[in-house]
Design a protein that fits this description.
With 186 residues, the protein is mainly beta. Helix content is 4%, strand content 19%.
Length: 186
């Protein structure tokens, strides 16, 4: 499976990258990542050990968010967004890695030029990163090759294009499931 391309997990606007498929490498890499909240997350299977998350999102290792726990409303809570890949031995978007390479955080607005932190990465000008090691900490930012923003899947099943100039407070509010924020994404 690691060597198979899954077209539904690819954004046609992003690079077509090589599949690195060996015992140490990650295989197929896609463009979509799940919302882990705000802060940094670790490759840690006890949800209580995620002490780097200031706001816990719905997708954290071994945590099962249920719809009833999304009290901010499914139309106000981010589920999945786009991330960018690099055509190198880089773990971002790797579906067959357990190091948080398909999770992202809402610390920064879409396409903001801050370094992703992930297990193995190759930094490029428009997709910067720094290695966080296998255990973490990890933090990836929503990124897209689309001009001006990213597509965001909300828990109600709707998809919206969110501008990279979105109000930071609204972007932060979308990360939480039960933060009781009054501000919403446009």
């Amino acid at each position: 499976m690691r060597g198979i391309t899954i077209d539904a997990f690819l954004c046609p606007s992003d690079l077509d990258v090589e599949i690195f498929n060996s015992a140490y490498n990650f295989g197929f890499r896609g463009n979509y990542a799940a919302n882990s909240g705000i802060g940094t997350y670790k490759r840690e299977y006890r949800p209580s050990a995620q002490d780097g998350l200031i706001v816990r999102g719905p997708f954290v290792h071994n945590y099962s968010a249920k719809f009833k726990t999304i009290t901010d409303g499914t139309s106000n809570t981010a589920a999945v967004t786009e991330i960018r890949k690099v055509d190198a031995d880089d773990s971002r978007g790797a579906l067959f890695a357990d190091a948080g390479t398909v999770q992202y955080c809402h610390d920064y607005t879409p396409n903001e030029l801050v370094a992703d932190i992930t297990e193995r990465c190759v930094s490029e000008v428009d997709v910067p990163c720094t290695g966080g090691g296998s255990g973490g900490p990890h933090r990836m930012t929503a990124r897209s090759s689309h001009p001006g923003g990213v597509n965001l899947l909300l828990f109600d099943g709707s998809v919206r294009f969110v501008s990279e100039t979105v109000d930071r407070n609204a972007w932060h509010a979308a990360a939480s499931m039960r933060g009781k924020e009054s501000i919403q994404l446009p």
